From TrEMBL:
Residues 119-213 are annotated as: Disordered. The keyword Chloroplast does not apply. GO terms for biological process: actin cytoskeleton organization; axon guidance; neural tube closure; positive regulation of actin filament polymerization. One of its GO terms (cellular component) is lamellipodium. Residues 138-161 have a biased composition (Basic and acidic residues). InterPro entries: PH-like_dom_sf, WH1/EVH1_dom. Signal peptide: none annotated. The keyword Phosphoprotein applies. Belongs to the Ena/VASP family. This is WH1 domain-containing protein.
Length: 245
């Protein structure tokens, strides 16, 4: 009786490089998604995992028998791994649904194998303990998460410093009781009143007045009479002649 597929999922098939201590894509060419299936042979009650790239060439990237006692490790929700006699296999599933479907079928196959008698399996060589342990995978995942968080903090800090350098410096608030603001420009306005110096004070008292000439006293006398309407006075003429004589 021929084999039949009991499970089909989409995943990227990986193998662990012991020398470089890292995961690398299985097969040749660029990394791509493969169609991974679990086949069951009812006549021999055997299971195996077969994966082919979802490309035109359909390159086979995994053909691994499932042995009794295999340790299937669900490292993360989307990444599962196990080891065989040659190497460590890893499946990076495209979705959580694919991962759940494949894990359920794998556990079913292991349950069937564990129910078989031990004859023929006790003499099988134990697979070498190569590849990372679950604890190492968890530690690696935590280190990668911490590195991403550190890079994110550094990016936010650089953005904050760039924004602070581009912003103008804030104007310091004026302290209470500080000097008033400078006055505005003066406008030329017409003076409302003309300022004049105060009049001089009276001359100092106590000194004699300067003498005045007789001509000046008579001129004052004539002026008073002229204001009264007198055009001429013979007395003025006589006085003038006598003054000249």
């Amino acid at each position: 009786m021929s084999e039949s597929s009991i499970c089909q999922a989409r995943a990227t098939v990986m193998i662990y490089d012991d020398g470089g201590k890292k995961w690398v894509p299985a097969g040749t060419g660029p990394q791509s998604i493969s169609r991974v299936q679990i086949y069951h042979n009812p006549s021999s009650n055997a299971f195996r995992v077969v994966g082919r790239k979802m490309q035109t060439d359909q390159q086979v990237v995994i053909n691994c028998p499932i042995q009794k006692g295999l340790k299937y490790n669900q490292a993360t929700a989307n990444f599962h791994q196990w080891r065989d006699a040659r190497q460590v296999w890893g499946l990076n599933f495209s979705s959580k649904e694919d991962a759940t479907l494949f894990a359920t079928s794998m556990m079913h196959a292991l349950d069937v194998l564990s129910s078989l008698p031990d004859s023929g399996f006790s003499s099988l060589p134990r697979p070498p303990q190569n590849g990372p342990s679950p604890e190492e995978l968890e530690q690696q995942r935590r280190l990668e998460q911490q590195e991403k968080e550190r890079q994110e903090r550094e990016r936010q800090e650089r953005e904050r410093q760039a924004a602070a350098a581009a912003a103008p410096p804030p104007t310091p608030p004026m302290a209470p009781g500080g000097p008033p603001p400078p006055p505005g420009p003066l406008l030329h306005r017409a003076p409302t009143s003309i300022w004049a110096p105060p009049p001089p004070g009276p001359p100092p008292s106590g000194g004699p007045l300067p003498p005045r000439s007789r001509v000046w006293r008579r001129w004052r006398w004539w002026r008073r009479w002229a204001r009264r309407g007198l055009s001429c006075s013979p007395r003025w003429g006589q006085t003038t002649q006598s003054a000249q004589g």
